[in-house]
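Example record for the data management plan.
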Amino acid sequence: MTAGCLQAGVLPENFLPQLPELLGLQIRTLGYCCQLIGGVLVEQCPNRSEVGRRLLVVSAQFNHCRTVLRLFDDPAIFVYTKQYGLGTKEEDIFIRWLSVLSNVTDQLYYPCEHIAWAADAKVLRVDSAWWWTLNTALWTLSLLLGAVKALWTMLKLRQKLRSPTGTSASQLPRSKRRAMEARICSEVLTLLSNLADLANAVHWLPRGILWAGRFPPWLVGLMGTISSILSTCQAARAGRQAEADSP
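Corresponding structural encoding:
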């Protein structure tokens, strides 16, 4: 998506479905940036600690906004999970079952978060802490599965580029080589983004599990900002690719 299209008010057909995702990324990035800057000010700049605390409050509100917006994500997640099914069209059996397990995890993640949110809002009389812990555990598992999937896909693609079956790398069509290289780059971004989020997910698990509860606010903000920037880069690459492929 180019800036010219937005300024001219001309949107490609495939842009509208991406708007909710782009909005979520913007809110996410702003929230983590506020947490990063606020955390640094509180810890390193005593004379500006009040500004830092206010930024941390803003960050918390952005995160709450994202939680509320995710109340409307269930239909899209359900449709995607249903369409993928058991992944019978997937060539790689390992990727197939990783994807199925990841889809099941994501399908459970959203209801748990909704219940935790409803408990915090006093809509439901349940223990919100328990549901938030379960929600975080599911998120951690989903990120771990995503990281493994990205790493496996990246290694398989590199293997094909180096010694594709029945042909040499130099004999591959140039367009196919470029597509594979672009896919590898995308998987690298996915892997790094998932690992950054995974660091935060473990931090939010109950104390006693690895480094749970040990991150200062600025480090949580840093990991989240890195992940958000990488996700934004991915979205931009996907948008350019979709624009190039459209007639």
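Summary line stored alongside the record: The chain has eight helices and no strands.
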